Structures are given as C-alpha cells and as structure tokens.
Amino acid sequence: MSDIIPTITSGIAGPLGVLHLPRLWQKASLGAVGKLHSDYPASGAGFDQMTLDALGINRETFLDYIKASKPSYTQLEQWILDQKGGALDDAAVEKHNDAVVGYNHTDDTRGAILKAVGIADNGAILDAVNLNNLEDWQDFYAQQIQG
Predict the structure, then answer these.
(1) pLDDT of amino acid 121
(2) Which of 40, 59, 107, 113 has minimal CB crowding within 10 Å?
(3) CA-to-CA distance for 26 and 73, rounded, in angstroms?
(4) Which one, of 135, 147, 145, lies nearest residue 6 by Cα?
(5) Which sequence spans correspond to the domains of the chain?
(6) Distances (CA, A) of 127 to 17, 25, 27, 57, 147
(7) Separation CA 96–CA 79 (nearest Å)
C-alpha cells in the first residue's frame, strides 16, 4: 500500500502531552518511506507547523530526523527531549494544546467537510479536530472499505 490515509487524530497526545504530535509523527513517517496519501503533507502549515513551533523544532530538522532514523513514536519523543535539554516548556505546550482544541475551520471548510460525510451543518460540530477526524475517516472508508 503506497497511499495510506493517516487516522491518528490531532486530539491525542503521547506521554509528553503534546496534542497532534502522534499524528505529525505518523504523517512524517509515512512520507519518509513514500507511503503517505498524496492529499496529506508530511508536514504542513496548519497543526503540523503549530506543533513544531510550540516545541521549538525546525521543520526540516524534524523531517530529516524522521527520514534518516525512522524512529518509533517513543524514540521521537526522546529525540525531542534531547533537542530541548531534557524538558519541554510546559507553558508553550499548554498554549499549543489550547490552540489545537480551540481551532475552528472557516464556515466554508466546515460546510464542505460535513457535506462530504453526510452530516447536516447545524452548528453542532465546529472544531477542526473533529471535522478533520470525520474527513479522514470518510476518506479512509472510501479508499479502503469501498475500494
């Protein structure tokens, strides 16, 4: 399989407590070995860059590490700690996590996602994390289950 749709949600964190980091690791790891679906960047400008910025990690340095080392998730977290002198800035992580949870897509983006997954846009689902989940799951379903 050479076009895997990532399904780890941005709303989950690993042991370091950084939301979206597991998803970023999955996307970058798949991208490094040519298995990421073409609709997904290995590291994009949205939550991906927000996460790297919160950690103070350069995007190219991050992607180069993933490509060269192909780390497990826990190895990635240890590498991040090593880059940061053994500890993260707790305030930066909290600010980042709040930003991820609190981010809402534009009305147009929300409407398009909900239409694609067959849910009425009645204002009940506003946050980008859940909207992105719905979109990923629909894409996965269409690709893997419906064929």
Answers:
(1) 96
(2) 107
(3) 8
(4) 135
(5) 1-103, 104-147
(6) 20, 22, 21, 26, 29
(7) 19
Instruction: Calculate the average pLDDT of the chain.
Output: 96
Distance, in Å, from the CA atom of 62 to the CA atom of 79, rounded to the nearest integer, reads 10
| CB distance 65 to 47 below 8 Å | no
pLDDT given for residue 1 in this prediction: 52
The letter for the amino acid at 15 is P
What is the rounded distance in angstroms from the CA atom of residue 43 to the CA atom of residue 80? 16
Q: Render the burial of 34-66: b for 16+ CB within 10 Å, e for the rest.
A: eebbeebebbeebbbebbbebbebebeebbebb
The per-residue pLDDT for range 91-137, each reduced to its tens digit, is: 999 999 999 999 999 999 999 999 999 999 999 999 999 999 999 99
- 44 contact partners, CB below 8 Å, separation of at least 6: none
Q: For residue 73, give the amino acid letter.
A: Y
Euclidean distance between CA atoms 126 and 121, whole angstroms:
9
| DSSP alpha helix (H) spans, the chain | 21-32, 47-55, 59-69, 73-83, 90-102, 107-117, 128-140
